[in-house]
Amino acid sequence: MTIGALLAPVGMFWLSRVSEHSHYLTGVGLPLIVFAAAAGLIFVPLTMTLVAGIADEHSGVASSMFNAGQQVGGAVGLAVIGSVAWTVVNRHVRDSLSHAAAGHNLAGHAAGPGSPVYDHALSSGVTTALTMGAAATVLALIVTLIAIRVRREDLPDSPLVM
Fold it and tell me: How far apart are alpha carbons 128 and 147 in whole angstroms?
């Protein structure tokens, strides 16, 4: 779990460096592979840790509470990060349009999808959102290192909860 918590910020920070000029493999593909490996190293041990010490008849409820919390946390996180991303995109497009209206030379740089202005604005929004995601994974690493204290012998023999 600790190795996954160490890898997750690396993958997210790498992914947050994506720009409108990035190549898919190095800008998106490889960072997502690193993050996916980290998630795999985190979630199975975390689930086992959460049900460790829970009576067998209550392990299903404990596991479902973990899953429900994970879904709610993901939804709230996505809403916040998505709102920030689109706020940044909107601000960049609006600033570019106000520069054009003020007489600055932006000929050929309309702010619609596919334009350099829009591409840069979208890239900035995504970078901001993913940087926030990287910060959240650093927070998860800190929580993992400080708060989760379980011995191997306290864990169930199998990740399967019966």
Answer: 28
Question: Token pair of 15, please?
Answer: 């992914």
Tell me the CB-side half-sphere exposure of residue 16, using CA atoms within 13 A.
Answer: 19
Give 139-160 as a 3 state SS string.
HHHHHHHHHCCCCHHHCCCCCC
As a dihedral over the C-alpha atoms of residue 44, residue 151, residue 73, residue 86, rounded to 10 degrees, the angle is -80
3-state percent helix, strand, coil for the chain, nearest multiple of 5: 75, 0, 25
Report pLDDT for 160: 55
Q: What are phi and psi of 55, to 5 degrees?
A: -60, 145
Token digits of residue 3: 């190795």
- The encoded tokens of residue 124 equal 């900035």
The predicted model scores a pTM of 0.75
Per-residue pLDDT tens digits for 36-54: 999 999 888 888 777 777 8
> Do 89 and 124 meet the contact criterion of CB atoms below 8 Å apart?
yes
Residue 8 to residues 84, 101, 109, 115, Cα–Cα distance (Å):
21, 43, 37, 33
The pair of structure tokens assigned to 13 is 């920070």
